[in-house]
Amino acid sequence: MYTQLEQRGMPQPPVNVSTLRKMKHDGEPIACLTAYDASYASLVDAAGTDLVLVGDSLGMVIQGHDTTVPVTVSDVVYHTRNVARGLRRAFLVADMPFMSYTKPDIALDNAVRLMQEGGAMMVKLEGGDDQVQIVEHLARHDIPVCAHLGLKPQSVHKIGGFKVQGREPEKAEAMCAAAKRLQDAGADIVLLECIPNEVGKLICAALDVPVIGIGAGPEVDGQILVLYDVLDITQGRTPKFVKNYQAGCDSPLAALETYVREVKERVYPAPEHCFS
Ligand code: KIV
Hey, how many other C-beta atoms are within 10 angstroms of the C-beta on 85? Predict the structure, then answer.
């Protein structure tokens, strides 16, 4: 009766929260990517990615918006359901979009939709101290949570653009304190976006739960990038932390395998992908 989650006719068992915690403990980097559909999800999974996020970045890379703000819960449910069909081993996380977690009960209803209708194994939400109560409420209902700190794209109109966060010592300390409070409230993963290397290192050392970075330097437990950036599909200016893995590779699968290998070998991120 317990075999479905552990055996899907594959050599390696599916990744779960215990796997991710053990990887942190053992110092094995966690390779993560976003995905939005079943075909790419199967490639991302075949490349050996440990964690797949159906990010609200889908608003930008799939829907063509300038920000993630227009994305709805139904959009994320739809894409999560499709990604779930393409995965065998990777752990599936779904983003809670803008304004979908304003109150504990609203957050719970939407998280349940992402898990029951979408097949997500964890939900991700953006926020610091202001989200402690929400995380506590979800954790009390056994909903695994990833807390996203640093640059919070859903707040782009409030902060006035996509900017590096936590450069000032007091802001870095506040971010670290918020990360600890979110962990104590029940967050199972902390994701850090666009912060100086030193702040990523500080927060990672302070937490027991895995810390995944995107533009947070090399000294965190894992790395995540937006799939379309890695495959050089995104046109125009990309953030400093992006690396084009399609260059020099003759297939998307080869590019994704190179990304996973470089994360595992700590080749990515290199100094040119980092903030100080
Ligand atoms: O929405 C997303 O894809 C994300 C990643 C940038 C981490 O939150």
Answer: 12
Contact 81, 118 (CB under 8 A): yes
Residue 1 C-alpha to ligand 1 middle, in angstroms? 34
193 is catalytic: yes
CA gap 134, 113 in Å, rounded: 16
User: Residue 241 to residues 17, 70, 188, 235: CA-CA distances in angstroms?
Assistant: 26, 25, 24, 15
pLDDT at 12 over 90: no
Tell me if 224 CB under 6 Å of ligand 1: yes
Domain segments of the chain as ranges: 3-273
226 lines ligand 1 (CB under 6 A): yes
Say yes or no: CB of residue 75 within 6 Å of ligand 1: no
- Please indicate whether residue 95, judged by its CB atom, sits closer than 6 Å to ligand 1: yes
Q: Which of 68, 146, 211 has the most ligand 1 atoms within 8 A of CB, as the residue to mutate?
A: 68
**Top-level CATH class of 3-273?**
alpha beta
Interval 7-15 mean pLDDT: 76
Residue 111's nearest CA partner among 160, 73, 162, 63 is 73
Atom of ligand 1 nearest to the CA of 126: 8
Whether residue 9 is predicted with pLDDT greater than 80 in this model: the reply is no
Given this model, what pLDDT does residue 161 score? 84
Query: How do residues 193-227 score in pLDDT, each as one tens digit?
Result: 999 999 999 999 999 999 999 999 999 999 999 99
